[in-house]
UniProtKB/TrEMBL annotation:
The active site is at 192 (proton acceptor). Its EC number is 1.1.1.94. Belongs to the NAD-dependent glycerol-3-phosphate dehydrogenase family. This is Glycerol-3-phosphate dehydrogenase [NAD(P)+]. NADPH binds at residues 11-12, 32-33, 49, 106, 141, 256, 282. It comes from the Bacteria. NAD(+) binds at residues 8-13, 141, 256. The lineage of its organism: Bacteria, Bacillati, Bacillota, Bacilli, Bacillales. It is found in: Cytoplasm.
Length: 346
């Protein structure tokens, strides 16, 4: 049995805490909201984020970061990407040697273009902890909390760290693979949210399965193009955190990114959509960051650019689709083969 702190009690933090509790670890779930903490203790439910799910009776809902992290072997950061820096600052005084830092968040920071593990590393500089592991893959919290079979990847540059995370989480319904490609795993998890917005927009416009399959496939092509330039292993994108997460997020009604896109496709404005959602829609901020990254590295990302134009410049989604369909004629694989061979020729 290990002692584990889960920081962030939204849908994903709560579902991961339940997996860890099922594995008989000593789990402490922390939320920054006092009223949410009280509600979870009183009702034994997390009504806003996972309605109808009864929390395990032995799951500890704690009062403070200090209580959450006391003597723990691992912390699992599961707050929205925009709250990672702030949460790391709160965590910093409680770090100790041999503490494994795992995160389950999916995003890229605009302007700095940092991945989650890079932000964590930056914020925890000068402190002692073991390593950072990213946990990512096709895993809607709603299904994990019902113990439906789910597979994810634990990625760390240090294989041993990924293996510790694998051992902590793996059970009968939650299968964990390891990977050393943390760049690819984090980029796959973050960038698929942009394409999921696109899939939602396409469905909202009334287009069918052909359009969605095109978005998933060509979306994967542009994700692997930029990610390979940024140092990822291209093979990661045929894995769970690549095509796996892309499929689940583009096709599931559980996906907040798909649902937000769907409303955009039906003509709603971004502000209205986000108010209506009331939950984290990571693809919006990641679209901004990725648009900037594509410009910086001169990588063609036409789908991401189109979605960015819809979200931030009020472009009509139908005009964006027309523009995508009328791009210059091209060979399907030429670009990615060139990028892959550049990478492997060094
Ligand atoms: N929901 C899911 O099925 C999955 C979500 N993720 C990722 O997990 C991360 C968290 O997402 P969800 O749990 O789904 O979000 P959510 O919208 O369900 O909940 C967000 C939680 O973060 C808390 N929060 C907001 N601002 C905060 C701050 N400044 N400091 C501390 N806590 C704060 C909220 O109170 C809430 O408890 C995201 O990056 C998401 O992409 C990853 C895999 C699956
Ligand atoms: O990352 C997820 C599933 O793997 C959750 O996606 P959404 O944030 O779109 O709900």
């Amino acid at each position: 049995m290990s002692k584990v702190a889960v920081l962030g009690a939204g849908s994903w933090g709560t579902a991961l805490a339940m997996v860890l509790q099922d594995n008989h670890h000593d789990v402490r779930l922390w939320t920054h909201k006092e009223e949410q903490k009280k509600m979870m203790i009183e009702t034994k439910k997390n009504e806003k984020y996972l309605p109808n799910i009864v929390l395990p009776s032995d799951l500890k809902i704690v009062d403070s970061m200090e209580e959450a992290t006391k003597d723990v072997d691992a912390v699992v950061l599961v707050v929205p990407a925009k709250a990672i820096r702030e949460t790391c600052k709160k965590l910093q005084p409680y770090l100790h040697d041999n503490l494994l830092v795992i995160h389950g968040s999916k995003g890229i920071e605009p302007i700095s273009h940092k991945r989650i593990s890079e932000i964590i590393e930056e914020e925890l500089t000068g402190t002692n902890y073991l390593d950072i592991v990213a946990l990512s893959g096709p895993s809607h919290a709603e299904e994990v909390s019902l113990k439906h079979p789910t597979t994810v990847t634990a990625a760390s540059t240090k294989e041993e760290a990924a293996r510790i995370a694998q051992d902590l989480f793996m059970n009968q319904y939650f299968r964990v693979y390891t990977s050393k490609d943390i760049i690819g795993v984090e980029l796959g998890g973050a960038l698929k949210n942009i394409i999921a917005l696109g899939a939602g927009i396409s469905d909202g416009l009334g287009y069918g399965d052909n359009a969605k399959a095109a978005l998933i496939t060509r979306g994967l092509a542009e994700i692997s193009r930029i990610a390979t330039v940024l140092g990822a292993n291209p093979f990661t994108f045929i894995g769970l955190s690549g095509v796996g997460d892309l499929i689940v997020t583009c096709t599931s009604v559980h996906s907040r990114n798909w649902r937000a896109g769907n409303l955009l496709g039906k003509g709603k404005k971004l502000k209205e959509v986000l108010q209506h959602m009331g939950m984290t829609v990571e693809g919006v901020r990641t679209a901004e960051a990725t648009y900037q990254l594509a410009e910086k590295w001169e990588v063609e990302m036409p789908i991401t650019s189109g979605i960015y134009e819809v979200i931030f410049h009020d472009k009509h989604p139908k005009d964006v689709v027309d523009k995508l369909m009328q791009r210059n004629k091209t060979n399907e694989m030429e670009d990615i083969i060139r990028i892959w061979s550049n990478r492997y020729s060094h």
